[in-house]
Amino acid sequence: MASVADHYRSHLAPVYEWMSGGFDAAKARGETEIGTILPSLSKGSHAVDLGCGFGMHSIPLANRGCSVLALDSSSYLLERLKAHAETLPITAVEDDLLAFQRYLDRPADLILCMGDTLTHLPDRNTVSQLFTLAAASLRPGGTFVAAFRDYTQALVGDGRFIPVKSDADRILTCFLEYAADHVDVHDMLHEKDRNAWQLRVSTYRKLRLDPRWISASLRDGGFSVRTEPGLAGMIRIIAAKS
Asked: Are 183 and 93 found together in one domain?
């Protein structure tokens, strides 16, 4: 089984923009989400985007006048972010999510962890560590926002096959296998090579995180928390540092 970083490097990163509907569509969704979550975001704010990918949220934040620390483990996706960002005030860093503090030169106004990134962490203790780091890195009144999928209710039978995206030359499907505290995600990518279809499969692991546990953990860390529906069936948690 591949690590999250290896899975993205060898399998998912090269098709990530495609599976997201293309850069322009993804950026538009990111702009709408930022506007919904943070309608009063101040120009000059300092934001951290954990698991930033190709910039779906980093670029809208920078366009609103924020300086952005954008961190991801995929060098490929960070290169795509840099190409899209051009001269925007975004610092792109390849590193582990929990290493973000070493790149901060002042408290953050906003920390994002979107796109199911929380479930990529290896265990609950690591998730708790991230929450502790976020609390320590935000200014008073700062905001931590996370979006993630709720895997606590196991799918069964054919429901474990999830069609992600397809077109005339490419089909991406994932198959889920559930264990007590995690789900193994098998990403099956069919790509047409001339007239023949080629199949590549890679498997990695995601955590099954209960939204109630996440909310309680953030409250224990000194945040006030609200939970709401996010994009594409995800759950979004918005936590304000007291």
From this structure: no
